[in-house]
Amino acid sequence: MGDHHHGPAKGLSRWLFTTNHKDIGTMYLWFSFAMFILGGSFAMIIRAELFQPGMQLVDPLFFNQMTTLHGLVMVFGAIMPSFVGLANWMIPMMIGAPDMALPRMNNWSFWILPPAFLLLASTLFMEGGAPAFGWTFYAPLSTTYAAPSVTIFIFCIHVLGISSIMGSINIIATVMNMRAPGMTYMKMPLFVWTWLITAFLLVAVMPVLAGAVTMMLMDIHFGTSFFSAAGGGDPVLFQHVFWFFGHPEVYIIILPAFGVVSQIIPAFARKPLFGYDSMVYATASIAFLSFIVWAHHMYTVGMPVAGELFFMYATMLIAVPTGVKVFNWISTMWRGALTFETPMLFCLGFLVLFTIGGFTGLMLSIAPADFQYHDSYFVVAHFHYVMVAGAVFSMTAAVYYWLPKWCGKMYSETMGKTHFWISFIGFNLTFFPQHFVGLAGMPRRIPDYALQFADFNMMSSIGAFIYGSSQILFLYNVIATIVSGKPVSDDKVWDGAEGLEWTVPTPAPYHTFETPPKVDASHAHS
Amino acid sequence: MTTETSTEYEKYYVPEKSKLAVCATIGLILSIFGASYGLNEMTFGDGSGSWGILWVGLAIFAGTLFVWFRTTIRENIAGMNSAQLKKSYVLGMFWFIFSEVMFFFAFFGALFYVRNLAGPWLAGEGDGGRMNGLLWEGFQYSWPMASTPQESIGGAGNQLIANNGTFESYDKSMAFGDASAWYAWLPLWNTLILLSSSVTVHIAHLGLLDGNKKKFNLWLGLTVLLGIIFVFVQAYEYYEAYEHFGLTLNSGIYGSTFFMLTGFHGFHVMMGMTMLLIQWIRSVKFGHFTADDHFGFEASSWYWHFVDVVWVFLFLFVYIL
C-alpha cells in the first residue's frame, strides 16, 4: 500500500485494476460512447428500412430485433453509463473529496457492464435471434413467445441492475459522507444534487426491474403463471411492474441532464443560477412524482376509469416542477453577459427541444387523447425529444464543458459549433416529422407503412443519417483535442465557471483533494 | 465558510489498484452464461452441457468475495480505516438493504395485484370482467387459488398456451389453514423461530457492547442455530406442499406467489445466516470484534432483522390473510 502520491500505473493493468474515480469515469465515458455508436447503428438500420414504404433491406424479425436492441443499448448502455461516468469524474471534484467513497466497488460496477453487453449483443447470432419484443419486453411476447435468447437477456438485465445499484450506493455514500467541511447540502453544485436524487431513484427501482425479469424467468423455465391469465395471473401485471421501474427510469436519465444544464448555463451567462433552492425542491418533487405516474404508459390496456383519472392528474402535476426548472434557466440568462461557446449552444438546444418534448408529454398525459396517440410515431417523437435532445445533448454539452479540465487541452471551437448545428438540424429533421406521421396514425415498431407517410419518413431517414454522421465529427474532435489540442494553462477554463472543480490545476491531477479544501462562499453552488 | 479542524483531517484511505473487481466480474459473467445456456438446454459441440460453467463461475465469485472481505477486514485491523471510511461502509450497507426491500416490494406488489384485481376480473368482476365470458365462463375466484381457471371449470386437457403448455394434473387441496391442530402448523413455528432469532442476535449485540465476548459468542451461535432450524422447517414445508397438498410452482397463481415470496425469503435467510456464521467464526476463532469496533457483525445483524421483518409481512399476507 504505502505511498499514495503516485501516478497512474502503466498499460492495461491501469484500467483493469484501477480504483481511481477519474480512470473509472473515463472508462464509463468511452464505453458509453461505444454503446452510443452501436445503438446508433441499429437506429441507422431501422431508418434505412423505413426510407421507403415496402420491405427493402431486412426481414421483420430482424427489424424487431433492431428496435429492441436500439432501445436497450441506448438506455442501459449509452445514456445511463455516460452520466455515471460524469458523476465519477465530477462529484468528488465538486464536493472536495479525494475519491469515491467505495473505490474498489466502483471499479466492479463498471467492469461488469462491458461483458454483459457483449453477451447481450451475442444473442444476435443465436438461433431464434436476439430479443425482438421491444425494449419494454411486454409479456407474453417476452415469455410465452420469446426466443431462447430471452434467458440471456434476463440475466444481462440482472447484471446491469447490480451495476447500477452499486454505482448508486457509491454515489449516495460519497455525497452524504465525503463533502469537504463547509460544503453543506444546500451549497452543493446542482449536478451533485440531481445525482444524489437520481441515485436514490436507481436504488429504489432497479430491484423492482430485477423482480420483473425474475418473474419472467420463472414463467419461462419453472412453470409459474405470474403473467399468464391461463394460470390466474395477468400479463397486465407485467406492465405495472415494468413501468413502476420504467417511469422513474426516464427521470433517472433526465435528472443528471438537468444538473449539467444547471452548471453550464450560469457559466456562460456569467450569473449565478437563478432560484437554486427551488431547483433542488423541484428535482425532489419530480423524483417523488415519478413513483405515482407509471400507468400513464398503459392507458389503453383497460384500466378502471378511476385509475386513468388518477394517473392523468398525477402526470400533469409533473409539469409544475419541470416548469419551475425551465423558467429558472431562462431567468438565469435574463440580462446575463451571454456568450455562445459549444457547451452553451448544446444547452440552449436542450432547453428549446426538451421543452417541446415536455409539451408533447403533456399532450400524451391526457388519457382520452392518448387513445389516439398511443403506440404511434407521435410517442416516438416525444421521447426522442427528451432522450436525445434532452439527455444526449446535455451529455455532449458536458463533454465540451469539462473536456479541457480533464485533458488540459482545448477542443476546436469551430468543429464543436459545426457539430452542434449539424446535430441540431439533423435531429429536428429526424424527429419533427414523426409528430405528423404519428398523429396521422403511423404505428411504431412496424417495418412497413402506408404510402401517405412516405415523404415524411424519407425526411426522417435523411435527418437520422445526418445526425448519426455528426457524431463522427464529435469523436474526431475529442480525439484531436486529446492528441494535439491547444494546451490550456488556466485552472478556470471558462471565465464564468464556478465551483471547486475549477480550483484544481488543469489538467486535473490524478489525485485531487487528498486533504479537504476550504469551502467559502465563492465556491458554493454555481 | 471554513472550519478550524480542516487542517487535522484524518486521511481517507483510497485503496491501491486491486484485482478483486475483475475476478468478481469473471465469476459473475461465467455464472450467468452457464445458467442461461443451461436453462435453454444448449450443449457444446462435444455434447457437454453448460451447467459446469455456472458452477465454475459461482466458485470464482464466492472465492473472490471471500478474498475481498478478508482484505477489508485486514485493512480495518491494520488501522487503515478512518472514522469517515467506516461511515461509508455503514451507508453502503443501509442502502443495500433498502434495495433488497424494494426487491421484495415487487413480489408483494404482484401478490396484491393478483389477489385484489386480476383474480376478481378473471371471475367477471368490474371493468376487466368481460373476458370471463370469453375465456373461462363460470370461473369463480377464491383465494388461495391453487388451480388454474381452466382446471377449476373442467380440467386442463384443452389448455394450450398457459405456462408454455407444460401443465400436468395435480390433486389439489390447500390445507395449510385447516391442519388438524394449531401446533401442527409449520409457518407459526417458523414465525416463532425467526422472531426469537432477532431477539437472540440483539442479546448478542448487547453482550458485545458490554465487552462480554462469551455472552456474544453464545447468543450469536444460538441465532445461527435458529436460522438453520428455520431453513429446515421451511424445506419440510415445501416437501409437504409438493407431496401432500399439490401446491407446486405449476399450480396456478397461488403457487407462483407462494413459492416466489417464501423462496426468495428463504434464500435471503440463508444468506443472512451465512453472514452471521462468518461473524461467529471470526469471533470464536480469531477473536475479532471489540465493544466499539464490530461493524461486520452489526451489518449482518441489520440484514438479519431485515429478513425477519420481511417474514412478518409474509406471514401476514401469504399465510394468514
Automatic annotation (TrEMBL), chain A:
Pfam families reported for this sequence: COX1 (PF00115)
Membrane topology qualifier: Multi-pass membrane protein
Keywords from the named record: Cell membrane, Copper, Electron transport, Heme, Iron, Membrane, Metal-binding, Respiratory chain, Translocase, Transmembrane, Transmembrane helix, Transport
Domain Cytochrome oxidase subunit I profile, first and last residues per copy: 15-520
Segments passing through the bilayer: 28-48, 68-87, 108-126, 146-169, 190-218, 250-268, 280-299, 311-331, 343-367, 379-403, 424-442, 462-483
E.C. number: 7.1.1.9
Entry keyword RNA-binding: no
Biological process per Gene Ontology, one example term: respiratory electron transport chain
Subcellular location: Cell membrane; Membrane
Protein's organism: Parahaliea mediterranea
Family to which this protein belongs: Belongs to the heme-copper respiratory oxidase family.
Name of this chain's protein: Cytochrome c oxidase subunit 1
PROSITE patterns recorded: COX1, COX1_CUB
One term of GO molecular function: metal ion binding
Gene3D superfamilies, per the entry: Cytochrome c oxidase-like, subunit I domain
A GO-annotated cellular component: plasma membrane
Pathways involved: Energy metabolism; oxidative phosphorylation
Catalysed reactions, semicolon-separated: 4 Fe(II)-[cytochrome c] + O2 + 8 H(+)(in) = 4 Fe(III)-[cytochrome c] + 2 H2O + 4 H(+)(out)
Protein purpose: Cytochrome c oxidase is the component of the respiratory chain that catalyzes the reduction of oxygen to water. Subunits 1-3 form the functional core of the enzyme complex. CO I is the catalytic subunit of the enzyme. Electrons originating in cytochrome c are transferred via the copper A center of subunit 2 and heme A of subunit 1 to the bimetallic center formed by heme A3 and copper B.
NCBIfam families membership: CtaD_CoxA
TrEMBL record, chain B:
Main location: membrane
Sorted UniProt keywords: Membrane, Translocase, Transmembrane, Transmembrane helix
MF terms (GO), sorted A to Z: cytochrome-c oxidase activity
Cellular localisation: Membrane
GO biological process: one example: aerobic electron transport chain
Enzyme type, top EC level: translocase
Residue spans crossing the bilayer: 20-39, 51-69, 89-114, 182-204, 216-236, 256-281, 302-320
Cited InterPro entries: Cyt_c/ubiquinol_Oxase_su3, Cyt_c_oxase_su3_dom, Cyt_c_oxidase-like_su3, Cyt_c_oxidase_su3-like_sf, Cyt_c_oxidase_su3_a-hlx
Pfam families, A to Z: COX3
Topological category with respect to the lipid bilayer: Multi-pass membrane protein
Domain Heme-copper oxidase subunit III family profile residues, every copy: 8-321
Annotated GO CC locations: membrane
EC code(s) of this entry: 7.1.1.9
Family: Belongs to the cytochrome c oxidase subunit 3 family.
Protein name: cytochrome-c oxidase
